[in-house]
Amino acid sequence: MPNTFKTGDVVKLRSGGPKMTVSDGAASGMYLCHWFNKDGDVWTPQHAGFKSDQLIAADQST
């Protein structure tokens, strides 16, 4: 059964990467996530859509 997340949940990709905040979930099973990348002293906002089976709750990851 695929994971289900709600707006505001903090998640990570199963393969690793930064913590991301879920901002929207669609009936298609895609979740829009936001995070920040740091390059020197500059933080740049990023976003992308991911399938539910690509994500895990951040507190479940190591």
TrEMBL record:
InterPro entries according to UniProt: DUF2158
Native source organism of the sequence: Mesorhizobium australicum (strain HAMBI 3006 / LMG 24608 / WSM2073)
Name under which the protein is recorded: Putative small protein
Highest rank taxon of the organism: Bacteria
